[in-house]
Amino acid sequence: FSGLDPAQPYFQDTPIEVRLDKSDADFVDIIHTDSAPTIPNLGFGIRSAIGHIDFYPNGGEEMPGCDKNPVSQIVDIDGIWEGTREFVACNHLRSYKYYSDSIIYPDGFLGYPCASYNAFQAGDCFPCPAEGCPNMGHYADKFKDKITNDFLKLYLNTGEARDFPLWRYKVTVTLSGKSKVKGYVNVALYGSGGNTKQYQITKGTLKPDNTYTAYIDAEVNVGKLTKVKFLWNNNLINPTFPKLGAATITVEVGQDR
Q: Where's the PLAT domain (predicted)?
């Protein structure tokens, strides 16, 4: 049984007999997309972990893309009716959009077991454990026989619009050069499954021999890595023409470590 942002008003903290609970089926997976408190945030979705596995995409409260201009949501690509509903309950309705996207992407929407969304964002729960990460949505039941915890909370990020799945990578860059400069470092990944756009690894003071790490949520599963593109810029014309390179770049795939 898959719960798509089960309702919070009148159901939060109620007995299990009157709300969805993991005792209702052999395997219950939940997608929480609107779990901010109803008052004052108008959260429509239940916050508590109530299934065998509970996914909290983007932290489970505010979904990316839902804070865009209200007018653009009402005059929506899916028509006026869809746009009006989105305006009222965009976060709440993201759950079924993620679910429908998950059917098309069997390798997408990996949920990382973690204590909190902040810990997930900081990279504390990367990569996936040895038994792997479950996939949020249609293929969540592939994980049915691997559950050991009473409640398993899983975190991931999604895109702002279709297609929603993102794939998480840890990118570590050690710089080479003669002197420190101010600027930013970008990296793009190339692989058998496709190429990513450029992602910023760090900005500010760039010191040769220093190592910089970032977690990137890429819009494509690059598959087998074939090339990494390294770019840096100091955004201003420097008469000394400083040179900066990458001594090493390490890419770790969240999915298979």
A: 167-257
